[in-house]
Amino acid sequence: MRVPVSWLREFVDAPASITPDELHAALVRVGLEEEGLHTFGLEGPIVVGEVLEFVDEPQSNGKTIRWCQVDVCPGDARGIVCGAHNFFVGDKVVVTLPGAVLPGPFPIAARKTYGHVSDGMIASARELGLGDEHDGILRLAELGLDPEVGADAIALLGLDDWAVEVNVTPDRGYALSIRGIAREYSHATGAEFRDPADASRWSSGASQGDTRIETANAISVILDDRAPIRGHEGCSQFVTRIVRDVDPSRHTPAWMISRLGLAGIRSISLLVDISNYVMVELGQPLHSYDLDTIRGSITVRRAAPGEKLTTLDGQERALDPEDLLITDEEGPIGLAGVMGGERTESTSSTRNVLIEAANFDPITIARSARRHRLPSEASRRFERGVDPAVAVAAASRAVDLLVELAGGTADAAIGRVGTVEDRSPIVLPADYVNAIVGADFTRQEAVDALTAIGAVVTEAADGDLVKPPTWRPDLRDRADLAEEVARIVGYDRIPAVLPTAPPGRGLTREQSLRRSVSTMLASTGATEVMAYPFVSEEQLGLFGERVPAVELSNPMDGAAPYLRTSLLPGLVTVAQRNLSRGLTDLAIFELGVVYLPGAAIVSRDAALPSGTQRPSDAVLEDLEASIPAQPLRVAALFTGDVIRKQPGLAASGASLADALTAAEQVATAVGASLDVRAATSHGLHPGRTAGLYLGDEEVGIAGELVPALAHELDLPRRAAVMEIDLSRLMEHAPRDVSSHPIATLPAATQDVSLVVDASIPAADVLGAVTEGAGALLEHAELVDDYRGPGVDSGMKSLTFALRFRAPDRTLTAAEATEAKLAGVASAAAKWGAFLRE
């Protein structure tokens, strides 16, 4: 929110000498965030000049310039070259003299051009920062100004003003107005605040309790939202005013243009500028219609299926049944709270104007703005909540400006349909504020703070009843009130005392194991990443057949409306981004949850508890059952070279082995043991894919991407991935870690090569050997898988390295051989294995 200081001073007593730093500091004290400072970037001398004479001089380049004599001070005529032709002798204009600086910065100096020495420049509105108009110079008569020659043009046009910018959090929509910021400045400094929404300030104003509806000159309005979407009533109040016989050819005055410009809004036309001016001043978005183009009565309703609207930007938009519309008898004339329609817009031929000041449901407006990608200043305010009690005053303020600046005549009628709901009081128990804030505020300080923000405080038996003001929809419970007291009285009153952590607590078992996994993978050189949990339908099917997924009713990105069922698509996206930036050797991993919907999922139209009271146990159980399962997973992706080329060592590219190593590291970190078996999986190479098992339960997958898929995803031809259900892995991890003494007696090592059917997994054969070898076997691993000459077709030779050790003696070769043969016998009995000759 940008706040022009001259505008702010109209409603609060800010010192004339206040600096931007002082204004920022005051607003920061009440919780607003400092963003920046905005000025017009002008330096004088910039004065009012009068055109005494000029001569049109055609040039060889086809242009015709004017050699002008301009009086910039009585008796001081300057020769100035000008390329514009929209002015006449006797016109008063803005002259930037040598030494002046225009926005850019663009310094002005006397210079020779087109055969003359131009001693300054006649400025356009765009060059002064007053707008985008650059077709000609700024004629002061068009702004209704007739100043003396030589007067300071910067002060005349309000270009000596400045604005501070503050960040307004979404819960404080009232601060998106000069009215709201002036009130906050008053809270911070104690300066007197004058409410610009006070109807007595405007000649056409009416009290907030005025109930005059549809006199002879008012237009009929119908609120037709009897079946609101998700329980949200689309429009609670619709106020209309009519101004007739306006002069749309009149220009917006300079003071309004400069204030709007500092507030970040460009000047368009007088009728539109007045609506924007009142919106910034009071926080109530307005819309002005060409009354003569409206057919019949106005109806506020939801869009019908297949309905379309051409908005002010000339775009035809297909409407959603959730969109709230302003319509007449011929169809839609506006997308409520977002943008008006082209058919009824105010133009240069508009003579009669209908002013609309309405209150719309924040959720409805937010969804329409995002759905149609139409963020606007109006929707930004409606999304955060607009004061429903300011609508009549805002419409009356706009009417007064139209009468004053556009020469219109106001109808007496104030059309008002709908009501302003009365706020329910909140019980604030005695000493509650101090208990939750941790400060020592007196009751009177709390009452004064709540009264200052506009609340009505009534003393009750056990505390106070606090009725929040209409402009603070964010104040819903006593905790909100406690926060307001702390904010207004001063955060500096809250003691800076760190709480003492209770003894005997630390990480939970799951947290500790999760940290061990991430530490293990990071220590091997992999980088932990965090990908978005939102995926597209195409991504859902990358590494598995299309599975049911949770679809968001209001996704951040319409192209990715689903919650992920695997971590791998997110890792692919991260890899693509890094590869596009030249990082080809990647080892990345992520720990995160996936979302696996069960039979019951809350649909987008399901009614949810209001939040004003605790739901029943049955409702909570239903909600809990509707939440999708969210198991924790760990996934990794490897591309490029795992070992880079160096002297005496060839490069080693990423492969299945790296994915399996990462899986083994994960299992080691949690104290579990994984079995690896040949497998197939969608998107992975059928000959280079392994299933990861805990006993007979598959808990993960590892493999290399199918080259065609890797090419389609813009990844290197060889890319390896692995994904493990970490939740299941941690469930099977031992809860007590036991240590073994370091063996001091020598080990006996032997190898054994067994021939088995090629279809039998090596892990099953190894398991049989381990089981048969008994307690003397300390370690066993597969070191070779041979298929070729010397081994029958359909068979394979598996070589295992065995290490034997006894805790109390040195084993003999005979004892080690006996244990080895026992393992061979076990493999022969289970899988028909025999020793390779």
From TrEMBL:
Molecular functions (GO terms): ATP binding; magnesium ion binding; phenylalanine-tRNA ligase activity; tRNA binding
Q: Binding of Mg(2+): at which residues?
A: D474, D480, E483, E484
Gene name, Swiss-Prot/TrEMBL: pheT
Instruction: Identify the main location.
Output: cytoplasm
Q: Tell me which InterPro entries the record gives.
A: aa-tRNA-synth_II/BPL/LPL (IPR045864), B3/B4_tRNA-bd (IPR005146), DNA-bd_dom_put_sf (IPR009061), Fdx_antiC-bd (IPR005121), Fdx_antiC-bd_sf (IPR036690), NA-bd_OB-fold (IPR012340), Phe-tRNA-ligase_IIc_bsu (IPR045060), Phe-tRNA-ligase_IIc_bsu_bact (IPR004532)
Q: How is the cofactor bound?
A: Binds 2 magnesium ions per tetramer.
- Its family? Belongs to the phenylalanyl-tRNA synthetase beta subunit family. Type 1 subfamily.
Gene3D superfamilies attached to this UniProt entry = 3.30.56.10, Bira Bifunctional Protein, Domain 2, Ferrodoxin-fold anticodon-binding domain, Nucleic acid-binding proteins, Phenylalanyl-trna Synthetase, Chain B, domain 3
Q: Which reaction does it catalyse?
A: tRNA(Phe) + L-phenylalanine + ATP = L-phenylalanyl-tRNA(Phe) + AMP + diphosphate + H(+)
Q: What is this protein called?
A: Phenylalanine--tRNA ligase beta subunit
GO biological process terms held by the UniProt record: phenylalanyl-tRNA aminoacylation
